[in-house]
Amino acid sequence: MNYRKEIYSLPRGRLARWLTAPGQDAPHEIRVALVGTLFGTLPIFFGGVSNTVAVAWVLARRHPTLPFKLWFIAEIAVCALRLVVLVYSRRRAVQGQTTPTDLYVLLAPLWGATVGYGALVTAMSGDWVSATLAFLSAAAMVGGICFRNFAAPRLVAVMICLSLGPCCIGALLGGEPVLLLTLLQIPFYVFAMSVAARHLNALLISTMKAERENSHRARHDTLTGLLNRDGLLSAACRTGASPIKAGMTAFFVDLDGFKSINDAHGHEAGDLLLAQVATRLTTLASKGALVARIGGDEFVIVDPRVDAAPDDWATLAADAIERPFDLAPGLRVSVGASVGFTQVAADEPDVDLVLRRADLAMYAVKRKKALREERC
């Protein structure tokens, strides 16, 4: 399941992994998708950056002192570095290469710290117009932090604390009693936004899990757990990563005598038989092979590598299926198997055509069997 075209690497460092830990247990695929949401889009990035840089620039011009100049320089440096890392990461993610996720994640709290530093120096300057602007900017950024990064609730909490925490320190050191009210406001605000991030995170993960399960059901056979026809075609046609390539072999397997077992012993016995056939075929197939049940008693294996010649492998598959099946105590049955195969040509991107050729080869095997039985 891909929620984005780009696939970003999971963080490796202890701190970055702690910051991006999801709010609940999540499969690897979902954790990758959650990390991908942290990278956002360039318009969202520029929206936040333009606010903090503009405020720092305006107030540095209003107060051309060292603390304000340092604030403006820090904003420019951190935002520029974040932009470079973001663009570089997006390029590598599109190409399927590892991304500097740790660096990108750790730059986010650093950016929050620059916002908080600006609020601190303006509060201590005694210029309440500047302090109001800086505090307003910090508060506005917290909303964006929460709703942009709620895939990582811990990261949200840390960024909010770094952005708004210095406002409390500035209120204590600024000498303005009215600002002491922020000592009550900001902790409640941090708590509320952190809780909101956790709730949104839980909702996002639940939605991703539901989509993942629905996607799996849509592409897999519920009886055998193998790919179904749609799942086989989807796996074979993934853009840029098709597992069906020239030189592979597609096998089409059809059971002989399956209907008589269904008629004699019931559909439950037939279902057990199909499940055991699926297990035997999966065991025979090599690692990386696509194994699918595409019809009632029809199976397809697309194998990148077989240990024997294709005709010998087809014989092995038929022999494996023709061994008796123990479906229940005292119930042992046998079926036959007709196995046809075709090799994928270099100029044959049409998966349906490959399957049709394998299907025709299977029916040719079935006709030969019928002719031998007639002669006997």
From TrEMBL:
Parts of the chain that traverse the membrane: 32-58, 70-89, 101-122, 128-147, 154-174, 186-205
Q: What is this protein called?
A: Diguanylate cyclase (GGDEF)-like protein
What are the protein's UniProt keywords?
Membrane, Transmembrane, Transmembrane helix
Q: Does the keyword Cell wall biogenesis/degradation apply?
A: no
Recorded superkingdom: Bacteria
Known SMART domains for this protein? GGDEF
Domain GGDEF, which positions? 246-376
Kindly give the Pfam families that the UniProt entry links to this protein. Answer: GGDEF
Q: Does the keyword Membrane apply?
A: yes
Q: Which CDD domains match?
A: GGDEF
